[in-house]
Amino acid sequence: MGAQGSVDRSGSAIVAITPPANDASTSHRPSLSDINGVLLHYEDLVSVLGYFSEIISEYAAEKGLCILIDGRRMPPKALKNVLRASQQAFYHQIRMAIIVQPEKFLHQQKINLDLILEGYEFRTVLVSLHKLSKYIDISQLPENFGGTFAYDAEQWCDEREKIETMMTDLSNLQQDLIQSNGRLQISPEDATIVAGKRLVADLKKSENVHYNVAAKGLKKKIDEIEHLASLPQKEAELSKLNAENEERCRMLEEHAEGVNRLLDWIEGPGEKWLLTLHEIGENKDEARQLVKEHQQLALKSKMDLFS
């Protein structure tokens, strides 16, 4: 069982569910891929599917999910558990459930009856293995369903561990920034940021839907951190801009005051001065006296204007 990262012909992400192999000689470390017995334990199945729902929720909300179930050797009871658990875990995200029909005819009939009676909230299709290509391209079909899409459950778990560890590190860094109130400085060369960007770049190289979703989530977190880290500098730039604006306002106010003083002068001393400009005096002494008065009035007007 796994969310391999392939899609059906409609673009919906595929979650493939297969019965566990009964090979006692196979042993590996416990992981999400180790679900032996889960299919018959409803709560465990819901828990595993719920995890898949969390990591693909953003993509599923837009494109929906396709649940691909290998029912060839799956007991009808287990299949019923899978469908009910899928409905609970993924809620309205499921667009369609494709069931590879059991090998036994009686099981086929029982499953058909269960599908009718249960009335699931999503479309269910019971098909033979060779007709799967109608719904899923061979290149997107997992190998155990006859396709060519390679999927290594252990590798997938390792990648998910890297992604979640990185998301935790980034979240901790973001929290430290918030709590520092601008005292903590984060440079573009910060080890966590650099490692996060490198992981995002690696994930984007893959055509795997789940890796692309994870890359978007990590990039969003990195962008949030870089925005927080830039706030002190932006606040300093804003403070400088405010100071410049205040200086401009002060200069405009002084200019307005100067204009008002000029208007007052024109309406007062200036007007009086203009009225005397036509007087030239009846003799040389009067003319000199008028020139002297004009000079004194001009000097006083300038002092009144710029005082």
UniProtKB/TrEMBL annotation:
Signal peptide start-end: none
Family matches, as PROSITE patterns: CRAL_TRIO
GO MF entries: phosphatidylinositol-3,4-bisphosphate binding; phosphatidylinositol-3,5-bisphosphate binding; phosphatidylinositol-3-phosphate binding; phosphatidylinositol-4,5-bisphosphate binding; phosphatidylinositol-4-phosphate binding; phosphatidylinositol-5-phosphate binding
InterPro entries: CRAL-TRIO_dom
Domain CRAL-TRIO: 1-153
Protein name: CRAL-TRIO domain-containing protein
